[in-house]
Each structure stands twice: as structure tokens, then as C-alpha cells.
Design brief:
The chain has 657 residues and is of the alpha+beta class. α3 (37-56) packs antiparallel against α5, α10 crosses α11 and α12 packs across α19 (600-608).
């Protein structure tokens, strides 16, 4: 990419203003989702989005993200640089307008950016409003400009601080999140790196580097000439592909479209869709267009080439054509309309026909030129159809036995008396012992308990027929009441919260992972709608006299001991296991190894009482990253799993073996 920057055509007159920044600090969650780790990392994404917009417009090809030692973050690009001339309406520098006024930026001017990444265009002004301080340095027109802000307010006007080298341009933003908004914060290198990797796959001309200047000095550089083809290869790294990746690229009705896909010998459908680099978790019209074209084109090809067995009574459906499919769909839409539960579902009707037409044309051509691949794909789809038919028969048989009928709930379910799902929650509990305590300790009005026996099936390695044979999975399907697979409907869930409650040891973690794998693969909409939670039972009980405290990890235990002025070192030297109590100078500490060791009152007080409990909501920041982790941890390939464990072992402080 040329370093020539046409800065003259991007100036203050391109910056449109929609007023009002005060609300951001009052209601930050409206703008960044929440003020926890997810919202914190979203700040970085908002700043990076500006740099990506410059790249989409053809003016930047390098982005550098640095996590500084003091937990501030710097984002630097080699784009045109934010305009600094005087804004015609605001009568101050366009840079200050962009940084201090909500909804101000070039992305509202379609002559400046034909497409842009930010969902709602709130952008960098929100980051500024939620930062204790922010500094921005702009290189353009042969000069270097600087401005500093405190909690969204400019300290001084924009000033010139130097000269640039010939044709040098770009924007460098450094911000420090506000501790009044984010009570505790620490940026995770892996969380940010995963998003940067995704952006580099989606924009093959860009090089994105991320550095961590804190302990360890980790850094990664992402640049993928193969773009989406390399993305699919990365996602399918642990799967056995049936053919080389199919790549479709083109433009229909002014919409640039890129798609890459391949089939592997697995059972899950893994389709990831993006609009202007935004992961559309809930899909939308672009996804519908792809699915429609895929089904129709493959059906036509199979019929035309006599690939469906003569006399076969099995009709291939869309689900059959998508079993074992990994696909990435990326479209660039000038005026995207988003809808759905989390505003990540594309609603533009014209995008459906654009994607459908392009995929129909290009895939038909590809199949004609690659008959061997076409035959493999149809054979795979036929096997999927046969397994689906067997699963349907098993499901019908199970219904006749009342096992999957939500009107006939599993016998071991202790249901709640309220029937309004929004006010009901179900605890899926590991083991009969813990299930017994939970049943006695719960609030029967709104809390249901479903105890599970042993470890459920690893659904990553099983087809639907095998899944439906598993008694514990059938009990979950029946209790939740929203169906499964193609029949799944999250709106029919009998509970507003599904809470997974397992022991705080290795076995408990494994069972929780198996449960999450099942929900992610077959009931993902529950996660998208924020209905899945993980209970947080305490690890320790600490007593001094009549006072009792519960600690959920070692750090919290040490804090409590400090407050009690206990001899932490003496306690550390003791071996604390199970319910065996250790008494050091009047401070009694015991470690829970299992939920079953707690009596009903303790379980209610620490883990189930909405007034005092801590539960973690399961969210899906990146579908692609989630798919990769589940396949790595639960799939057949051993080497990637070993590498993942070795890389992440440093984050585990205490492990029960």
C-alpha cells in the first residue's frame, strides 16, 4: 500500500456532529455493554475501529497496539490522521470535536468512509469520556499535533509540537481507563490479541501488532495474505478437512462479499458471519443468503450428477448440507441496519439477495470445475441425512416414552412453583449429594434443581443420534423445555437463568466444560441472550469466634486473614484439605473440596441466595475464538490440546489432582 496520504479531502467539513457526551459517564453500560472486563476491553476495540476504518478506506496498512506498564493502552496507525482544522459549526479543532462529542466522526459522512466498523459510531469520544486521561497525537500535513483530555474534557487547545518526515501521517491515541468507572481493571493480552487476529484475517492488507510492556513483554504480529482462507484453516486446525478451502469473492449491488468454507469429518456446523468486521453473533440476512444458496446449489448439483442413491427416501435438508461445515462470511455494507437481542443481527434485505446471487453463481462454477470435491461433499451430506433420520426416529421413540416431552419433566427435577420464565432459574448441579443439599437449601418459589449423575457425553465427538441416547442430556433438554438442534427455540426456555453448579476441583471443571460444550453447540442462543451462568461456590470458610467468612479464591482468603490480623504464613504452612479444620491462634479455616460437603444453609448462604451469591454470566465475545477453544479442548487432536494446556498452565494457581 502506498504511503501517500490524501489528507486534503478528509478535513473538518467531513466531521458531522450529534451532540451529547454527559450521558456516557452516567450510563457507561449503554455504550460499552458493561463496566466489567468485557466493557474494559471494548474501549481498546473502539479506538482500533477508527484505525480499521482508515484501512478500509485504503489509507492505512499498519496498526500497533501497546499495553503500557501503567495499564494505559496506546493505539497507533499510519492512516491520514484525524483532521485538526477548525470545524465549521463547532468553531474548534475537528480533532477536539471527534474526541469530545458523541457521534462525531467521519463515519457519518459516506464520502469519507463508504463503510465503517463501529456498530453505532459512538467511537473514541466514549473512550475519552470513560478515561481518567487520554492523549492523542496526530501526524498530517507535515506537522505533529497534540491534545490531552481529562475525563473527556480537553485540558488545552490542540497545539503543534513538531514536524513529520515526508508523507508521514497517522494517529496515536493513549488512554488510561477511569477508576471511578472501572473499579478494578487489568487488560488481558490474550483477549485483545484474539480480536486483533480476527481483524487481521478479515482485512488481509493490514498488519496488526500487539505488544505487552508489562511483565513478560509478550507480543504478536498478525498479517494474513490469504485472509479468510487462512482464517478457515486456523479454525479447522484440529479437524480433518475433506477438501481444500473454497473461496468466493465479488461485489453485488455495491456490496463487497468474501466467503471461505470447507467441510471436515465432524458433526458440528461452524459458520461465522461479519458485517464491516463486526461479528454478527445472531446472523442476519447475509447468513440467510449464504445458507439458501448453499442448500439450493448443492441440491441441484447432486440431482444433476446422479449423486443421490436411486430409490433413496431421504431428502437432503439445509442442516445436512451444513454438518461439518466451517465457513466465514464477510460483507461490507454502507448503511447496515442491526436488530436482535444484542443488536448484532443484520437486517438489510438487499444483502440477502446479493450474497445469495454471488454464492449461487460462484459455487456452481466451482463444483463443475472440481467434481471430485463435489462428490465428497454430497457423500458427507448423505451420511448426515442418514444420521439425522436415525436421530429423528430415536427422538420420536423417546417422546413416546415421555423422555423429551417438556410436559413430562424428568423425575429428578425439583421444579419451582412460579411459572414465569423471567423469574425462574434452574441450577444444573453435579452429583446427587450436592443436588440433595441444593433442593433443601433453595427458595422453592423460583429456584429449580436438576442433579446430574457423573460426566455427560462429550458432544464434540458425537452425532445427534448418540447425543439423544445420553440420559443426563435428555434430562437437561426436557427440563429446559426449548427443544434441540433445528427445533431449538430459546423463547420456549422454562427458565430465565440456567446456572451450572459444579465442584471447585478438576473433575468439577471438566463437568462444567462438558456442559458448556453441549450448550454452546446445541443451545447457543441461550448464551447469546445472556441466560447461562456459572455458580461460584466458595473455596474456604474462615471462622474467628462467632464471625464466619467465605472466600472464593486464595486472594480473598488472604484479604480476610489480613483483616483478622491472622498469621497468614502459619496458615499457609498447614495442609488444608476437605472439611478438615485448621486452627491457628483462634482462626479456624477449612477448605471445601465439593458442594456436597456444604449443608443446605451454607449452600444457600454462599452460592444460591441472590442477595449474597456471585454468579458469572457466560458471554460470547468472539464466536470464532469460542469454536477454536471448544474444538481444541474437546476434539480428537491431542497435540493442540497439550500446547493449549502448556500455554495456559501459568494462569492456574492451585490445582487439585
Amino acid at each position: 500500500m502506498s504511503n501517500e496520504k490524501n489528507t486534503n479531502e478528509y478535513s473538518a467539513k467531513n466531521i458531522n456532529v450529534l451532540k451529547g457526551l454527559e450521558a456516557v459517564r452516567k450510563r457507561p453500560a449503554m455504550y460499552i455493554g458493561d463496566v466489567g472486563p468485557r466493557g474494559l476491553h471494548h474501549l481498546v476495540n473502539e479506538v482500533v475501529d477508527n484505525s480499521i476504518d482508515e484501512a478500509l478506506a485504503g489509507y492505512a496498512d499498519n496498526i500497533l497496539i501497546t499495553i503500557n506498564k501503567d495499564e494505559s493502552v496506546t493505539v497507533e496507525d499510519n492512516g491520514r490522521g484525524i483532521p485538526v482544522d477548525i470545524h465549521p459549526e463547532e468553531k474548534k479543532s475537528a480533532l477536539e470535536v471527534v474526541m469530545t462529542v458523541l457521534h462525531a466522526g467521519g463515519k457519518f459522512d459516506k464520502n469519507t468512509y463508504k463503510v465503517s466498523g463501529g456498530l453505532h459510531g459512538v467511537g473514541v469520544s466514549v473512550v475519552n469520556a470513560l478515561s481518567e486521561w487520554l492523549q492523542v497525537e496526530v501526524k498530517r500535513d507535515g506537522k505533529v499535533f497534540f491534545q490531552e483530555y481529562k475525563r473527556g474534557v480537553a485540558v488545552k487547545p490542540v497545539k503543534e509540537i513538531g514536524k513529520t518526515k515526508k508523507n508521514e501521517a497517522g494517529t496515536k491515541t493513549t488512554f488510561y481507563p477511569d477508576k471511578e468507572i472501572f473499579k478494578t481493571f487489568k487488560f488481558k493480552f490474550d483477549t485483545l490479541a484474539e480480536r486483533m487476529r480476527e481483524l487481521a484475517y478479515l482485512n488481509k492488507n493490514i498488519t496488526i501488532k500487539i505488544k505487552d510492556e508489562r511483565n513478560g513483554g509478550e507480543e504478536e504480529t498478525f498479517h494474513f495474505k490469504g485472509g479468510l482462507v487462512e482464517f478457515v484453516k486456523y479454525l479447522d486446525e484440529t479437524r480433518e478437512p475433506l477438501h481444500k478451502t473454497v473461496y468466493i469473492e465479488g461485489e453485488k449491488d455495491g456490496t463487497p462479499i468474501e466467503i471461505a468454507f470447507q467441510y471436515s469429518d465432524t458433526y458440528n456446523e461452524n459458520i461465522f458471519s461479519y458485517v464491516n468486521n463486526i461479528n454478527t453473533h445472531e446472523g442476519g440476512t447475509h447468513l440467510v443468503g449464504f445458507k439458501t444458496a448453499l442448500t439450493r446449489t448443492l441440491n441441484n448439483y447432486a440431482a444433476k450428477n446422479g449423486l443421490i442413491k436411486e430409490g433413496s427416501k431421504i431428502n437432503l435438508t439445509g442442516d445436512d448440507f451444513r454438518e461439518g461445515l466451517t465457513a466465514v462470511i464477510s460483507v461490507k455494507v454502507a448503511e447496515p441496519q442491526f436488530e436482535g437481542q444484542t443488536k448484532t443481527k443484520l437486517g438489510n434485505s438487499e444483502t440477502k439477495s446479493a450474497v445469495e446471487t454471488l454464492v449461487g453463481e460462484k459455487l456452481a462454477e466451482y463444483l463443475e470445475e472440481n467434481p471430485g470435491v463435489g462428490k465428497k461433499i454430497i457423500e458427507k451430506c448423505m451420511r448426515a441425512a442418514e444420521a439425522r433420520e436415525a436421530a429423528r426416529k430415536a427422538r420420536d421413540l423417546a417422546r413416546r416414552k415421555n423422555a423429551l416431552d417438556s410436559m413430562n419433566l424428568p423425575g429428578k427435577l425439583a421444579d419451582c412453583s412460579i411459572t414465569d420464565p423471567e423469574h425462574c432459574e434452574i441450577y444444573i448441579v453435579e452429583g446427587d449429594s450436592a443436588g440433595g443439599s441444593a433442593k433443601q437449601g433453595r427458595d422453592r418459589r423460583f429456584q429449580a434443581i436438576l442433579p446430574l449423575r457423573g460426566k455427560i457425553l462429550n458432544v464434540e465427538k458425537a452425532n445427534m443420534n448418540k447425543i439423544l441416547e445420553n440420559n443426563e442430556i435428555r434430562a437437561m433438554i426436557s427440563a429446559i423445555g426449548a427443544g434441540l438442534g433445528a427445533e431449538f427455540d430459546a423463547a420456549k426456555s422454562r427458565y430465565g437463568k440456567i446456572i451450572l453448579m459444579t465442584d471447585a476441583d478438576v473433575d468439577g471443571s471438566h463437568i462444567r466444560t462438558l456442559l458448556l460444550t453441549f450448550i454452546y453447540r446445541h443451545m447457543q442462543e441461550l448464551i447469546n441472550q445472556g441466560k447461562v451462568y456459572i455458580a461460584q461456590p466458595p473455596l474456604y470458610k474462615i471462622k474467628k469466634g462467632k464471625e464466619e467468612f467465605y472466600a472464593f479464591d486464595d486472594n480473598e482468603r488472604d484479604e480476610i486473614l489480613k483483616r483478622l490480623k491472622a498469621n497468614g504464613k502459619a496458615i499457609e504452612e498447614e495442609k488444608i484439605e476437605g472439611e478438615e479444620e485448621v486452627n491457628v491462634k483462634g482462626v479456624v479455616i477449612s477448605r471445601y473440596k465439593g458442594l456436597g460437603e456444604m449443608n443446605p444453609e451454607q449452600l444457600w448462604e454462599t452460592t444460591m441466595n441472590p442477595e449474597t451469591r456471585t454468579v458469572l454470566q457466560v458471554t460470547l465475545e468472539s464466536s470464532a475464538a469460542a469454536d477454536k477453544i471448544f474444538e481444541t479442548l474437546m476434539g480428537d487432536a491431542v497435540e493442540p490440546r497439550r500446547e493449549f494446556i502448556e500455554k495456559n498452565a501459568k494462569y492456574v494457581r492451585n490445582l487439585d489432582v
